[in-house]
């Protein structure tokens, strides 16, 4: 083995990337159903391979291998044109299912809550996105729930949402799965607690669902956590809390939030402990399964509304702040049996508070609304179960027959309600008065307006209106507030609501623990959260959370010094902030904590374009801002503007709307769905050897999952359709090398007209810059104009307003065009607070600079009008000739072009332009195009024509004179001599370019004709350096030369080098990349490196797929 081959092998090992399993699959119809075979052994022998069909048809599955122990099943769609191989995306789903219904007949102690329940597995986690749920999967899941007539559905998934109780999936579940087909939908409330309003969608934010929080008991502490000291039973610290943004309670019930149970075999472990509301939800689902089993055994009909109300009304009081109880199976079952005759239980009630944008509850949180009494109009409308038959509108009969006399009770004295309410099948409304003015500021106050059936109040409330007042305290100083000696134990939570002063942009919280100053203490985990609710903004965008340990190390010793933790974070002025501090549920011991909160404000006034975002027009040269400190004295300022993102806006190059395949994608009742697929071409500019982070964005669609009316998925691929990444509604960074790429957006909806409005939707591409561009901030306009340094003041007194001047730059990143934007932030020179930037900057790139024409002497030549006209006609003819070899596709057009070309060449030569270099180069381009597309019968003839034309060009150029010209140093001249010198230089450079093109073509022709090309290649190398790196055709010549000499290692090294230089490839060079990959595989075969040849073959299906990836 040569040294070069050794180097190639080392580089191959260094760049090795496992393509993963690559399986051949065969799909066929056996006369009854479609079936599939997967070559899981990857040996081409299918004789022993399992033959599978849709899982729901025969419930068959297979295992890829005993080594990976990964099971799979299949679904076949679109008359056998689409095979879907289904594998799990993680162990989470198996664990959840086992909590509900694991069945171990030989070891019943390992059983789930309802071991007799039948499980329908619906995968909503997309493995391409790291198991996150997608719109597509959620919609398909609803269809499966309905088609398979599921009694219950558990969903241990969820995300934050900007809008509660709306969105495509939420409405499909509420109106179809629950409201029409009677499925009881149970879902996790989220793990984002303990702050207020942290419940996630869909479980904690949506009507019609049983939202489940996570609770821990002393039995769990011992069996699952092995705690050495018992702690109080209560909800987990991290379990999300209500209320929802529209005032509903958020959590329906609590259930055990941890379990040790089954996980997939590929984990090489039978059981694992997991905790979260993902575990409490299937526990509750299993409990409800027991209740339903008992009702079916007693032949008692039920509806989701009836069961939900029984669960809530019989739950155990656990002293929860929002009166949410712990699920009780027997009491719920007894309740359902005892009151089964009351048909009113099969009605749900839709509550709307008119003055609160039709919210489901009353949630007062901001300063103004907590400082006055409110008279509010409540609308209540009964909601009846729809008939499963879509053509049977029998709800009107139910409405006509419905009557219920209700008694209304407020649980707190600061709420006044009417005494009675008569409900019939229509909407009713009444007024309530909520007076928070006398409530203690800084704390949370909760109450209910409960409606009881006056004929049977023992059943419990038939509906409740939840009232939450998170009343903020106003600062008595401009910027500071302190909470002394807060007492904590395991799981204890302290909330303080603070009115953030106007002008505040960030805050500093100091948590001081003095528990160990006098006596020894045990260390304890604490969490502190800052949350604010901004309209139409997800709660996780305004939340900052921290975990730390108090009493760590020597701080726990008696007589130790005071321990303090300092955190800085962004805030939004004039909005109520909750400061939530909690000792973690499993941390024993008592702790005394003091909290100090200081607000700061640095405001930037200018042309705003959004929340905390200001605009700079780069064409303005100098942009004026006003900087103020409205809260307190601010020190250590040293402002600058740092722009680290290049933003481009791209319209789709193609946009197509088509109906989706019904057997894979349709709505309940088989309603047809459409999908819009838009293609966005974009380019990643080279950035040294580094890849560039690219973040595609669709601002109107991003960050809306459960609360979105649309379904969104994106695929990013290179010029050969190799997928480089998938995305959904969440903004994602793709690390991409230089090259051309396509982003395809799929938008789905049943309304074709709605999709039509999105056909020209722009995509925003954010490219991270390797080096941020910095703009200078001056404190003095005249000095900024004069180019003198004048720093902005380092100190602002409270109330100061100072001007700041940002100086635009004439240098912009590579690839930036006029109209593009640079995005970054205004840096203040102080420690950066956590959370959103205090001030974002958007900078518009101005028009490009036009080179200023220098005073030069032009050669005076007498104009010959007739000659000038003849040359322009000739140039137009040459332009057509140059493209004529590849511009025509049909045989008829090609034949006509050949005749016209022959006549044109004769005409140009007859006019005396036969040795005009552009004319000869055009002939060369035509000859090359025809030779490269020629069939076997004419290939030799066409390549000989290339040889003839290339020799003609080379012969027309005085190569000796050309070499002499470029070999001599040119003396700088002036005046007419300089103009003459420039003219000569231009002509010589054109001649050299023509010679290089001719010599390259000669090399290619000789290789194609299988003649010796060494001499021609050496001749080319004298005129062109690096011919084998950037030009694939030249690389091909080099490869043939090295192959003939037996230097296969050098040939392979050159191919690898060329491919590495291409990055993602260009649109024009896509076919060359395919050729290079094929050449590499051939060289590996010739070297006998079968392992690496097989490696390349496995990658081929990924690098060079036959078409775009399927959504």
TrEMBL record:
GO terms for biological process: proteolysis. GO terms for molecular function: aminopeptidase activity; serine-type endopeptidase activity; tripeptidyl-peptidase activity. Belongs to the peptidase S8 family. The gene is TPP2_1. Residues 488-587 form the Tripeptidyl-peptidase II galactose-binding domain. Residues 633-808 form the Tripeptidyl peptidase II second Ig-like domain. The keyword 4Fe-4S does not apply. This is Tripeptidyl-peptidase 2. It holds the Pfam family TPPII_Ig-like-1. The keyword Protease applies. It catalyses: Release of an N-terminal tripeptide from a polypeptide. It comes from Entomortierella chlamydospora.
């Amino acid at each position: 083995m040569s040294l070069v081959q050794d180097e190639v092998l080392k580089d191959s090992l260094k760049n090795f990337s496992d393509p993963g399993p690559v399986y051949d699959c065969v799909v066929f119809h056996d006369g009854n159903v479609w079936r599939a075979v997967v070559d899981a052994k990857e040996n081409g022998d299918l004789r022993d391979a399992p033959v599978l069909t849709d899982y729901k048809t025969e419930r068959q599955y297979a295992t890829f291998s005993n080594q990976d122990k990964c099971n799979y099943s299949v679904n076949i769609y679109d008359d056998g044109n689409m095979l879907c191989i289904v594998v799990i995306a993680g162990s989470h789903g198996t664990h959840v299912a086992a909590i509900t219904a694991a069945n171990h007949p030989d070891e019943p102690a390992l059983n789930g809550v309802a071991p007799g329940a039948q499980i329908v597995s619906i995968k909503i986690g997309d493995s391409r996105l790291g198991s996150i749920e997608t719109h597509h999967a959620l919609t398909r899941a609803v269809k499966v729930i309905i088609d398979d007539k599921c009694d219950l559905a558990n969903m241990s998934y969820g995300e934050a949402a900007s809008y509660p109780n709306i969105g495509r999936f939420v409405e499909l579940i509420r109106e179809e799965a629950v409201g029409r087909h009677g499925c009881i939908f149970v879902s996790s409330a989220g793990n984002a607690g303990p702050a207020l309003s942290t419940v996630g969608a869909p479980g904690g934010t949506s009507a019609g669902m049983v939202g489940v929080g996570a609770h821990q008991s002393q039995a769990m502490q011992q069996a699952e956590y092995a705690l050495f000291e018992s702690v109080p039973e209560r909800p987990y610290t991290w379990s999300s809390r209500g209320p929802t943004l529209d005032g509903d309670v958020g959590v329906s019930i609590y259930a055990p939030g941890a379990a040790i149970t089954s996980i997939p075999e590929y984990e090489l472990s039978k059981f694992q402990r997991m905790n979260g509301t993902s575990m409490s939800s299937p526990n509750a689902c299993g409990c409800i399964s027991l209740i339903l089993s008992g009702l079916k055994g007693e032949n008692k009909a039920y509806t989701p509304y009836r069961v939900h109300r029984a669960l809530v009304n019989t739950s155990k009081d656990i002293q929860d702040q929002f009166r949410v109880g712990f699920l009780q199976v027997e009491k719920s079952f007894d309740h359902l049996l005892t009151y089964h005759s009351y048909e009113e239980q099969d009605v749900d009630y839709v509550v709307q508070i008119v003055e609160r944008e039709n919210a489901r509850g009353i949630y007062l949180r901001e300063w103004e609304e907590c400082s006055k009494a409110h008279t509010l109009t409540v609308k209540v409308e009964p909601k009846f179960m729809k008939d499963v038959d879509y053509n049977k509108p029998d709800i009107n009969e139910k409405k006509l027959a419905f009557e219920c006399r209700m008694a209304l009770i407020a649980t707190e004295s600061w709420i006044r309600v009417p005494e009675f309410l008569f409900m019939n099948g229509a909407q009713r409304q009444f007024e309530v008065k909520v007076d928070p003015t006398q409530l203690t500021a800084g704390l949370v106050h909760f109450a209910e307006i409960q409606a009881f059936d006056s004929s049977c109040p023992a059943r419990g409330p038939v509906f409740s209106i939840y009232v939450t007042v998170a009343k903020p305290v106003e600062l008595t100083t401009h910027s500071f507030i302190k909470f002394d000696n807060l007492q904590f134990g395991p799981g204890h939570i302290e909330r303080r609501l603070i009115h953030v002063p106007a002008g505040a942009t960030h805050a500093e919280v100091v948590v001081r623990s003095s528990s160990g100053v006098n006596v020894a203490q045990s260390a304890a985990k604490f969490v502190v959260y800052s949350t604010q609710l901004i309209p139409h903004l997800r709660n996780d965008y305004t939340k900052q959370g921290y975990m730390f340990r108090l009493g760590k190390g020597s701080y726990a010793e008696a007589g130790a010094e005071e321990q303090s933790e300092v955190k800085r974070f962004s805030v939004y002025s004039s909005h109520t902030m909750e400061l939530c501090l909690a000792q973690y549920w499993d941390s024993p011991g008592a702790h005394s904590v003091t909290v100090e909160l200081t607000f700061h404000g640095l405001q930037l006034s200018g042309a705003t374009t959004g929340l905390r975002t200001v605009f700079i027009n780069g064409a303005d040269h100098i942009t004026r801002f006003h900087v103020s400190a409205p809260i307190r004295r601010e020190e250590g300022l040293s402002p600058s503007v740092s722009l680290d993102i290049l933003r481009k806006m791209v319209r789709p190059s193609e946009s197509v709307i088509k109906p989706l395949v019904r057997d894979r994608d349709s709505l309940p009742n088989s309603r047809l769905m459409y999908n819009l697929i838009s293609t966005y071409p974009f380019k990643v500019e080279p950035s040294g050897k580094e890849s560039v982070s690219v973040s595609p964005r669709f601002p109107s669609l991003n960050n809306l999952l459960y609360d979105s009316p649309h379904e969104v998925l994106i695929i990013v691929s290179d010029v050969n359709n190799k997928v480089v990444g998938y995305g959904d509604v969440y903004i994602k960074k793709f690390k991409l090398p230089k090259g051309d790429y396509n982003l395809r957006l799929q938008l789905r909806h049943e309304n074709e007209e709605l999709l039509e409005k999105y056909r020209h939707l722009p995509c925003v591409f954010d490219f991270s810059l390797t080096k941020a561009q910095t703009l200078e901030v001056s404190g003095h306009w005249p000095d900024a104009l004069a180019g003198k340094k004048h720093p902005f003041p380092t100190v602002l007194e409270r109330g100061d307003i100072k001007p700041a001047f940002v100086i635009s730059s004439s240098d912009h990143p590579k690839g930036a065009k006029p109209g593009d934007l640079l995005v970054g932030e205004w840096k203040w020179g102080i420690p950066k607070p956590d959370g959103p930037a205090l001030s974002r900057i958007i900078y518009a790139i101005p028009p490009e600079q036009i080179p200023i024409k220098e005073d030069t002497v032009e050669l005076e030549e007498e104009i010959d009008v007739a000659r000038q006209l003849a040359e322009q006609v000739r140039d137009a003819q040459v332009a057509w000739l140059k493209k004529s070899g590849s511009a025509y596709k049909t045989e008829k057009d090609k034949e006509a072009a050949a005749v016209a070309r022959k006549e044109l060449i004769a005409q140009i030569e007859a006019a005396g332009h036969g040795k005009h270099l552009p004319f000869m180069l055009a002939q060369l381009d035509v000859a090359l195009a025809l030779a490269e597309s020629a069939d076997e019968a004419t290939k030799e003839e066409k390549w000989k024509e290339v040889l003839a034309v290339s020799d003609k060009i080379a012969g027309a150029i005085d190569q000796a004179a050309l070499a002499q010209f470029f070999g001599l140093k040119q003396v700088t001249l002036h005046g007419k001599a300089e103009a003459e010198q420039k003219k000569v230089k231009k002509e010589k450079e054109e001649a050299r370019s023509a010679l290089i093109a001719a010599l390259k073509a000669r090399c290619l022709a000789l290789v194609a004709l299988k003649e010796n090309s060494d001499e021609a290649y050496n001749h080319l190398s004298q005129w062109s350096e690096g011919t084998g790196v950037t030009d694939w055709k030249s690389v091909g010549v080099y490869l043939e030369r090295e192959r003939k000499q037996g230097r296969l290692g050098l040939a392979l090294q050159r191919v690898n080098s060329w491919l590495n230089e291409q990055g993602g490839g260009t649109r024009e060079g896509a076919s060359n990349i395919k050729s290079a990959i094929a050449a590499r595989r051939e060289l590996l075969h010739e070297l006998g490196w079968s392992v690496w040849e097989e490696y390349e073959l496995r990658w081929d299906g990924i690098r060079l797929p036959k078409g775009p990836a399927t959504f």
